[in-house]
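Whether sequence alone determines local backbone shape is best considered at the level of individual chains. For completeness, the protein is quoted in full, as a sequence line and a line of structure tokens:
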Amino acid sequence: MDLKSGYPFWAVSNGLMQAFPRLEADHRCDVAVLGGGITGALIADELARHGFDVAVLEQRDIGWGSTAASTALLQYEIDTHLIDLAKRHGEADAALAYQACAEAIDQLQAVASAWRDVGFARNRSLYYASRRRDVASLEEECVARKKHGLEVELLSSDRVRDDYGFDAPAALLSQQAARVDPYRLTYRLLQRLQKQGASVFDRTRIEEITPTTRGVTLRTDTGLTVRAGHLVVAAGYASQHWLKKSVARNRSSYAVISDPLPESALGFLADTLLWETARPYLYARTTSDRRLLLGGEDDSVDIPAKRDARVEKKARTLLKRLKELFPELALTPAFSWAGTFAETEDGLPFFGPHEQWGPRVHFAMAYGGNGITYSMLGAGLLRALIERRKHALWPLFSFQRMER
């Protein structure tokens, strides 16, 4: 299935950075990673850096699925508020999830610091109340985050207007956020892995997975085999293809990006991620070349033709909504696109084995609004599982959570 519509900016601006080889012969490795997007790249990098012989297999070109369509806001804030997550899973686990996501921002900075051209920059996060009735929940959320050591400030409507130039009943300001070019980071990670001796194969379709007590055998559509000690399925929303029962619902999100703007025109948006309490929410971020990227208008459409037909209208709606906040900000839209993603009921990801496949087949389902943050955490969690070590986020991020 085509995972995106329109002209995703990352793919347009970067082009096809490198063609990796197809799998042309049977292969053996310690860990096979199925999926060559940002999730698979972060996981493969983590495993390879700790001594595992890794092979990455992607059915398209590298980074050409959901990664190319990602808007890549790096946040610790989960789509589900900490106070609501606590009602589902208990306060301790909810706080653990939020604290881990905050730490993941620093981990992503460490990973991205190897290159100057992946568009990584530290940002603040401004989360504003869309309606007056949302203020009480923001106040409660602020108290809960502070209780668990997260740096956050509640801003009044006057403070939002004076400091940020738009009207909102209240807002939460966090210092722990960032942005990145996910497509370019994916290529840089996998290029480095290849130079270090790991195997990266694109245009290689896996049609059959056969787990045993000692390993996993993958068979391609051309009849070749990959034998691995473990398999990590990191194929984005398409990972659900390998499960008999769905664990998330598919959604489409829409985005539009402007031509480059003068530094003076961007104001606080130059270093601040902007998003709101309404669901689905409008969000905005800038790029390293001073473009403003808007996203949102999510819907339940995951049929490519229907999603394609909605891109231009959704882009106009996003621009209109931003204009309502900032009437003086003049934008010239350059590209618009949409991408299909998956969303879990509680906003948390799934990492690790599923009972359908046994202990050697691991899933990396970094679903939700902060999937790249989850992917960074999942890389360490999966390495711990493969090394038979305990990890603090297990079983909160595992399929066991569904059995509670």
